[in-house]
Each structure stands twice: as structure tokens, then as C-alpha cells.
Amino acid sequence: MSLALPPRVRSLLFAPAVRPDLVAKLPSTGADAVVIDCEDATPVEAKARARIDAAAMAVKIGAVVPTLIRVNAVDTPWFLDDVAALPEQIAGVVLPKVETMAGVDAASRALDKRGMAHTPVIAGIETALGVADARALLTNPIFASAYFGAEDFIADMGGTRTSSNHEIGFARASVAISGRIAGVSVIDQIVADFRDDDRCRRECQEARAMGYAGKLCIHPAQVAIANSSFSPSVEEIDRARRMLTAYERASADGIAAIDFEGRMVDEPVAAQARRILDSIAD
Predict the structure, then answer these.
(1) Are 17 and 36 in contact (CB under 8 A)?
(2) What is the pLDDT of residue 35?
(3) Which residues are bridge partners to 148 per DSSP?
(4) What is the per-residue pLDDT for 88?
(5) Where exactly are the structural domains of the chain?
(6) 11-229 falls under which CATH superfamily?
(7) What confidence category does residue 236 fall into, taking pLDDT thresholds of 50, 70 and 90?
(8) pLDDT tens digit sequence for 84-132
(9) Helices 150-157 and 169-182, axial angle in degrees (round to 10)
């Protein structure tokens, strides 16, 4: 029996379907969920074999950690065969390069034909068109979550990736906003330089501040950083509790805004504190 996709994914760790040695290590990494990748990390000549191996490996490790398979994009020649090979005992499917409603409908029909109409799908928003139309795309009921793919987005734009992230700032924020409007959680971009822990930590902090729920990881070393960054600290939890106690006491006396440790607290600030406490109750 496969473990279900958790409602909040702080770390989503990928491994190539063509690397069974790496896939075998996924359950021991501490990731909230893992993905066996048949798309970007699998060369063209290995696509056919990869989808078969991915299915077998997903069933095996899915009993230990929630496991998804990333299929190829809808408009590729491998998509339908990828879906046909999916095992029903997986936590979900990752659908890359989601761009059009027609493509989403095609994916929905293929999953329905496979008998997996209710299987959670994570949408990859990673092209200019996908970002532009993300608000409408993510309202489709097949999507349980979404991620922003910065590398593919910049490749599509013809731009250049930098460590500053300035070039993807608008798109990154747009996907977060679209996910919020659609009611699906969103997961932040990868850090390609998996040895740069400081950048990974910084990006996680930026993403959490923007409303992202977690981080795409491409190396096990990034998992602990993501899990920690997207979880409230002991200090945050303590402050949120004390703040809400003071605010609710004042509210009961008809006071709508208070000074709490030198900061004004009104309802929007209190809502942020409640969200922190709600996250530890999930």
C-alpha cells in the first residue's frame, strides 16, 4: 500500500528514473515526498525503459515514503505511454510544463482512462505561457499542488539564471499568488548548485515569506534545510501564542489593535500568527 501525499509538502525530492541506486536511497532522506523523474532527468533513448522501472520502484518505495512519478509533458510523444505505465499504488503524478487548458484536459482524460482520475497531480508551472495563465490553470480540480520551475522558465524566456533571482521575481511571485487564488499549495524552484547550502537556505526563507509551502530538492542534503525552513521555529511558535493571547484579550475589550513587543498587531498580523499555529497542528 502506498503512502498518501501529505497536505503540506515542505520537501519534494527528485531522483532520475535511470538511477535506481539513487531512487533506492529516497526513503532514508527524510523528505516529505519523493519523485521518480521520467522527464528532464531521463534521456530520450531511455524513456521507454525508464517508465517501466519507475513504476516498479515507485511501488516498492511507496510503502515507506509518499512517492510520485513525473511523466513527460502532455505535448511530447512519451506522455500517453508514461501514463499507461503508471502504477495505481502511487501518491501522485507530477505533470510538467502545464501551459494550456487543452493540455490539462488531455492529461485528465489520460488519467481517467488509466483509472486514476482521483490521483493527486502536481502541476509544473515553468514556461512563460504557464506563468501567464497559472491562475486559470490551477483551478482545475485535478491539481492538488503546483511548483514553479525557474530553470525551464528562464530557458523558455531566453534569459539567464542568476543567484540573485531578480530575473524570476515576477514569475515566482505570480505562481504563488495564482496558487493562493486557486486554493492549492505551491512549491518553490530548485537550487541547481546543490552544494550551496547558504543559497538553498536563503531561497527557502524567501519562498516561505512569499507564501510557498515547500522546496523542490535535487539532493538529499537540501531536504533538511527545506524541512527546517518551512517549519516554524520554537521561537516563532512561542511568540505567536503570546501574541494571540494578548490580542484576543484586547479584542474582548473592544480594542482592535495593540502594541505587542514594539510592533502593532491587528487582525492581519494575528491571522499570520494563527497560520503558524495551524501549521504545527497539521
Answers:
(1) yes
(2) 98
(3) 125
(4) 92
(5) 11-229, 234-281
(6) Phosphoenolpyruvate-binding domains (3.20.20.60)
(7) confident
(8) 999 999 999 999 999 999 999 999 999 999 999 999 999 999 999 999 9
(9) 120
